[in-house]
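Moderator note: this is an archived Q&A kept for reference. The question asked for a predicted structure of one protein chain; the sequence and the answer are reproduced below.
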Amino acid sequence: GHDLPLCTLSVSRDGRWFASGAEDGTIILWDASTGHIIHQWLAHETAIELLEFSPLRPRLLSLGRDHKMMVWDVGNGHHQLVWDAGWSSDLRVVAKFSPAADLLMVASDDVIQLWDTSTATGDDPPPKLTLLGHTGMIKTACFSPDGRYIASGSFDHTVRLWRTSDGSCLDVFSGHDGPVELVRFTTDGRRLVAGGGDGSVLLYHLRDYPPGPEDGSVRALGRIGDSAEEEQEGGRQETARQTEPEEGREG
């Protein structure tokens, strides 16, 4: 195993492998069925901050405190792409593959960049698209289940909805009183849940885009601190109390 403490873990979608990254910059690829080591290699000069498996291809993304981001071939442990991004060590970076594994999203500071994984090669390949609009550091971002959209949340208290085909911002939601900590699409892609540092959880009902911002509506579910417990068969479930929708936001 590793000689120094672990920093991050990732499990492949099919459950065949899991990968671990340590403070000394090493990555170990493990066989999930046997627990045996498949590959072990020195990936970064410093600790590894993030590991992310591609959902459909034998690829692994790594991000290190040496400010480098790399995509590895899981079969042989060789890198295919390298970005020497120069991110500061105190800057939060969000990196994810799209559901079809055709796009790689990286959000750093207040900018989101997209790479086409089928055409990007070598060192520091240029992004396919750059998404601009947030005025504060992005804390969270995710793809919709069909890969057509990206949702992002920021220190600027907003959630933005982007179209991945052209990078356009389709909607901006500003229902939070603090930084947006988490965003997630529902499995049908029709709704978006956002959690804020102010303790609020907001549910966004998304419709067909375009035509534009008026096609999004928000319903406040209440603050986590005001949650009520409901008895259900098989156990207890904690749910947020529903509050009245904000005037003018229900579509």
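Archived answer notes: The chain has a mean pLDDT of 81.
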